[in-house]
Amino acid sequence: MQKVTKNYEIIRTLLNSNKKSFVFDSIINGYTNGQIYVNDLDKPELYVVMDGGNFVLYVGGETDDINEYSKCVKFIQESILTKELKEEFDDHIIISYTSETFIKEMKNVFKDSIVHESFKSLYKYDITKHNQKSMNHELCDIKLIDQELLDSNLENLSELKNEINSMWGSLKPFLKDGFGYCAVTENKLLSWCTAEFISSKYCGIGIETIEDVQGKGIGTTVATNFVKKCVEKELIPYWDSWLKNYPSVKIAEKVGFDKIEDYPVIVVKF
Q1: 136 and 91 both lie in a single domain
Q2: Is 234 within a domain?
Q3: Structural domain boundaries enclosing 96
Q4: Which helix (H) or strand (E) holds 144?
Q5: Is residue 74 part of a domain?
Q6: pTM for this structure?
Q7: Mean pLDDT, to the nearest integer, of 38-44?
Q8: How far is CA 16 from the centre of its chain?
Q9: Quick one: which of 9, 110, 171, 188 could link to 155 by a disulfide (CB 3.0–4.6 Å)?
């Protein structure tokens, strides 16, 4: 496998076959930490994309040469899932795959390391049909995430900062190119929704609501205001969730997102 560092246009068609290509666009544009590898720089058929923000690997593409799949998975095992990566991030990683050939090969290589098989759900919002107004909530104030808020001493602020840092590398690029909304009381951060995987056309969403106030509509309120900002910026937002994360799915559907696919993933310990 060869790392792609330039001439991205030659791999666009290959990457765009994956509905998570908005993640790849963000990596290519330098907003998200990650790397892209293909089996051949001149005639790419298979790809491996490392999303360093959410710690997810995407593998995909098709080829008639079955040995290429084996080489691809071996590359993941030997060159990506290293001791150094474990020390820097974690010893578990999510791998999203697009074909039965890939999962068959991964089950062969990682037969003693796969700890979980599941599905995730991907949602997309049609900004051309947006007609919602900003929302308020009786239990809290809805605020834009800006420098003043990040400099405050709100309870739970460290969790928001950790999420921004993991996806953007630091607070500075988020304040420059990202955006987000949060729900606050006088001294506590209750919920937040932040831009992830941003590019010129698309935007992913990171959302969290503290356990004490879940189920009260606060997450829905924050997400609604976030989507309104996406519409203003002419960015198409995506919502990615575990299939059985029912509270997250409920918010996505309530705000107006449409499901575009359920896709399989495995969790590998290395």
Answers
A1: no
A2: yes
A3: 2-112
A4: strand 141-144
A5: yes
A6: 0.91
A7: 94
A8: 16
A9: 188
Percentage of residues in the chain with pLDDT exceeding 90? 84
For residue 218, which of 189, 259, 242 has the smallest C-alpha distance? 189
Please, which pLDDT band fits residue 131 given cuts at 50, 70 and 90? confident
CB contact set of 95 (below 8 Å; sequence gap of 6+): 56, 57, 58, 59, 76, 106, 265, 266, 267, 268
Alpha carbon distance 58, 241 (integer Å): 16
* Rounded alpha-carbon distances, angstroms, from residue 193 to 75, 80, 227: 35, 30, 10
CA neighbours closer than 13 Å in the CB half-sphere of residue 18: 27
Query: Average pLDDT of the chain?
Result: 93
Type of residue numbered 233: K
Give the pLDDT score at 86.
Answer: 82
Going by pLDDT thresholds of 50, 70 and 90, the confidence category of residue 186 is confident
| Alpha carbons 48 and 69: distance in angstroms, whole number | 11
The per-residue pLDDT for range 237-269, each reduced to its tens digit, is 999 999 999 999 999 999 999 999 999 999 999
The number of residues making up the chain comes to: 270
In-domain check, residue 89: yes
188 in Cβ contact with 195 (< 8 Å): no
Closest by Cα among 124, 125, 126, 117 to 263: 117
Per-residue CA distances from 146 to 6, 87, 120, 180, 194 (Å): 33, 32, 31, 8, 11
DSSP 254: H
62 falls within a domain: yes
